[in-house]
Amino acid sequence: MSALPTVANADQNDADLSRARPAENTPDAEVSEFRAGWPAVLACFAMAIFVWGFGFYGQPVYLAELQRANGWSTALVSASITFYYVFGAACLLWVSALFSRVDLRILLCGGVCVMALGAIGVANARHPVMLFACSAVLGIGWAATSSTAISTALARWFDRKRGLAISLALNGASLAGVFVAPLLVRLSAVYGLAASVTGLSLVMLAMLLPLLIFGLASRAPVPDGETHAVASGSGRAPDGPANWRDAMRSLHFWSIAVPFALGFGAQVGFLMHQVALLLPALGAEQTAVALMAGSFAAFAGRVALGFVIDRVNQRLTTALSIGSQALALVAIIIWPRSPQVLFPAVIVFGLSVGNLITLPATIIQHEFPARAFSLIMGMTVATGQFFYAFFPAIVGVVHDLTGGYGAPLALCVALQIIAAVLLLRPPRRDNG
Questions:
Q1: What band does 237 get if pLDDT is binned at 50, 70 and 90?
Q2: Which of 165, 195, 297, 395 is deepest in the core (most CB within 10 A)?
């Protein structure tokens, strides 16, 4: 357990979470941040397309194609997906320690190569042992390259406009759902899953690795002292959790981790069953249109919130975002066969899908000291990922027991209401 991240042992790279900046929050300071950091945003945007394309939106494609090619059961392939998320969540606790010890470019380039290797292995799996082994490799790559990695990387360039920077970079995740997954489906129909994943992975790596190497090469000078948010009285304590044990004892940490875990669980549970829910009412063609509309809504919602995210109450904004998803699910429960309701409900739900991934980083930035950012971010994402790894299966079990999606969607709504209430009632600042 000694490999877990600590603040006390962090080296000079920890200081990269602070940057040289004018004393006041001026437009010139914000422009200066983007002038120094836009190549990093572009590199992380491209990485998000790759990572979410093969690590999230590609999973349903793997499931369908591996079933067809190998005759495997849905339960077997679904179990490998759950294993992938759980193993990746465990790896997050150790990977976050590497951000203070390993050159950022080495870590991220290595991560995307490991993810490509895992995806290619999964696509070529012909035995369950190989499937689970390659899912573990894929989980390591996901831990080293997904939202924790992107948020921590951009924290080295951005403070005042960190929320906007992370939001813009993570829009790559939304585009992955629009482009990468459909492309995998089309290529797999012609060339097979193994050849399609292998070829597309190599092509994307050839474009992505130079962007990461050169986009993350520059580094702004680092002053002594805390970040701007602390200096300007954001309410963050001058000290914070020194290690994962301190964080586990902190009510402040759990006030973020628990509601986001509940929100992620409800969100992923619905998204993984969305096609099965929409098909009976909309048919294949209209379901495809609805899915694309939801993906574009996620993109638009993240862009729109990105421009104001650093100036609003992030806890209240998150609670409202989760609440809007709950209202969309309530509409689906009441009118499950009405296209006039399903289309706008999918769009309303989608508007907050991307923001729920972005908002934890902005809350953590404002409520914890800079040197604890990667620790708290990694543990928050790991907690949420461990929970939502099981939730698609939970939704499926409740569906089978009740004979429909009304009860599992009601469960999702209940979790979202609890999450919103918890976010609006943060604990008093503790010693963590």
A1: very low
A2: 165
Q: Which of 144, 136, 101, 137 is CA-nearest to residue 117?
A: 137
Left if phi > 0, otherwise alpha if psi is -120 to 50, otherwise beta: which for 298?
Answer: alpha
- Asked if pLDDT for residue 238 goes beyond 60, the answer is no
3-class state of residue 21 by DSSP: coil
In a domain, 19, yes or no: no
Contacts of 417 by beta carbon, 8 Å cutoff, 6+ apart: 323, 326
Instruction: Examine residue 17 and state whether it is found in any structural domain, yes or no.
Output: no
220 closest CA partner among 48, 29, 374: 29
Q: Whole-model pTM?
A: 0.75
Largest CA distance in the chain: 63
Helix/strand/coil for 335? coil
Tokens of 216: 């993350």
Answer yes or no: do 105 and 212 share one domain: yes
Instruction: Supply the range of the domain harboring residue 155.
Output: 32-219
Note the helical H segments in 307-352.
314-334, 339-351
Most confidently predicted of 83-92, 163-172, 322-331? 322-331
pLDDT (tens digit per residue) in 349-375: 999 988 888 899 889 888 888 778 878
Whole-Å CA distances, 212 to 109, 190, 270: 7, 31, 33
